[in-house]
Amino acid sequence: MFLTTKLHFNLHHQHANKNIINNNNNTCFCNYYNTKIRPITIYNTNPLIITTCKVKSRSMQGDENLIIRSSLIEPDGGVLVDLVVGEGERGAKRVEAESLPKVKLTRIDVEWVHVIGEGWASPLRGFMREDEYLQSLHFNSLRLKNGSLVNMSLPIVLAIDDETKGKIGSSSHVGLVGLDGDCVAILRSIEIYKHNKEERIARTWGTTTSGLPYVEEVITPSGNWLIGGDLEVIQPIKYNDGLDNYRLSPKQLRQEFDRRKADAVFAFQLRNPVHNGHALLMNDTRKQLLEMGYQNPILLLHPLGGFTKADDVPLDVRMEQHSKVLEDGVLDPKTTIVTIFPSPMHYAGPTEVQWHAKARINAGANFYIVGRDPAGMGHPTEKRDLYDPDHGKKVLSMAPGLEKLKILPFRVAAYDTRENKMAFFDPTCSKDFLFISGTKMRAYARSGENPPDGFMCPSGWNVLVKYYKRLQVEEEQAQQPAVLST
Fold it and tell me: According to the UniProt entry, where is the signal peptide (predicted)?
């Protein structure tokens, strides 16, 4: 895996406002994820602590007395968006939402409400209207009123069908209805425009081939219209799956970085279990930051928690596996924060990796690690990668709105058969290195075969083996013919 780290040089800070979160009667997104583990709360709700320290950074010539503060990256647009209404307003907003024409949300629509409402897509304040949609689709960015650009590589839109459009009529506002039938949000000053699915698919994925997971799940069955507007989220989105303590908003993360007195934060996006090659690269990143003069670099281990394709390891299993990696000391719990990124996954390669980087800027991370073929997948109908594995890191270095990021290259990590551990690849003795893909890793776990010693911590590997054994039993039971009682 070839990894690069991206450095954000903007060192201005936006103080986060206090946000009171009511854990009772929160919007329930139930039964989407299996409840397997009960994590402890890692977010401390004490008032925001602002800390500073002076460091000497060899990468910043002439800035030896530069003051570094934690979570100092300005969110896109300068102000972190927070669209969740205050607790005292929720009753009135709920009554108003019930009086409006309704738009029913899918489970992935609710995930996007979560993403927009917490500010991951700042400065976006709702589902995109047509001008925002076209800018995102054709330019991968949005131009703000002051003339500046922010990255926005993925259209974040809400589709409706002809029947819903007819029911909305001339109304300026609509209520958004969650999976349990309750209104989760209001969309104000709406605009309805045509949903050209073919154009959207072609420009986002660079292909219209069949079998693209997000297309099959979301776009193909969706309506022929898109509805945009300003979003008001009536109450925080909760999933009640035992993992809500891990779903920290960008505001909460910025506060947590400050509480831990971090002077650098480096984010690692993943949707797979953590093996020792990942850990090698994350630990090496921290080592480099220390050598640059930072005193307390914090790792944001940030697994994707929204929609993923059917053969990916489920979120609850991944989170349990990540906890074992910390328990075994493969990553240091004192310098690592594990929290869930709520976005759905598009598998759109270089287009999507820009979204992943942009969202972490809004969360306050000032370094971003990007791997080989980020957000990519195998071609749905051919035996090859859908995207060039190196294009993700190259695109990030040129993407509009991400100019504040600087790439620092890493070497490839692979399994060293001489040392029986994951190590940086040495091309002079390539025959001694073994590359274990995610597909191969899943095949090991499904068959019950152990990977080479040193590939993954044993307790973390056992989590995967147990999951695949359970999955195999469920598949066998599903294939058994039903027995009719007389």
Answer: none
